[in-house]
Amino acid sequence: MRYGNDTTLFWRTGYKLFHGKFLRFMGGPKHEGNLLDGSGSSVDNRLEPVDAKINFAVPASKFLETSAVIKTEIKPGIIDDCLKTVAKHSKQVKVSFDSKKINGSLTHKKGDVDLFGCENAPTFAQLNERKMQELQILKDMAQKAELGTLTHTDIQNAVHLISVRIKELRQMAYLKTEGVKKFKALGQPDWRTSKYVFVISSLQSSLFEIAATIQTSLKAVVYL
After folding, report:
1. Angle between helices 20-27 and 5-18 (to 10 degrees)
2. Superkingdom of this entry's organism (predicted)?
3. Which of 128, 147, 143, 17 is closest to 72 using CA atoms?
4. Tens-digit pLDDT profile for residues 96-151
5. How many CA atoms lie within 13 A of 161 on its CB side?
6. What number is the average pLDDT over the span 150-179?
7. Residue 90 exposure: Cα atoms within 13 Å on the Cβ side
8. By the 8 A CB rule, do 218 and 169 touch?
């Protein structure tokens, strides 16, 4: 089946935003379950096309994944592709900066607020530089441990580095816990059916991840 350009763009946009669940929802239940003949074995060729519950003829995901219109991931900042698209229709554009937290993605490499140094301190560049420096310290320490040249000062520096991170994680956990309480109160009587359910679930997931990271960090300190 062939689709027009506008129709293809619609399916690709929906797939990029909501992934497989978008295609399943738009496609409908079709033929649910297996048809049995009473003996427990499936019966072939008994699913009538006219009885299928189909909402739309949805393109295959493999076809939609080949989209060159929308990239899989876009770094925070100025989106050049959007400017090029707009420039085809108008040469005048207005640029505004939005500092809201965006989706962190599964790789945790995207989503940090980056306003090119105009955000509140510590800036994204400062945080990234600190992270790289601390990772390098730990890598150097691991290398020294393999060579047998690890000193007491190296261990003290590593323990201090990890302890500071644990302290910051606990402070973050406290703020997120307070956020959960706040949104649960706003979502009364049943927050699970309120409009706050997604933000509450996101905060709870972050708390679980923070707790696991703290536990791993504490084990590292004990090991040192």
Report:
1. 120
2. Eukaryota
3. 17
4. 766 655 555 445 555 566 677 777 788 888 888 999 999 999 899 889 988 889 89
5. 19
6. 93
7. 5
8. no
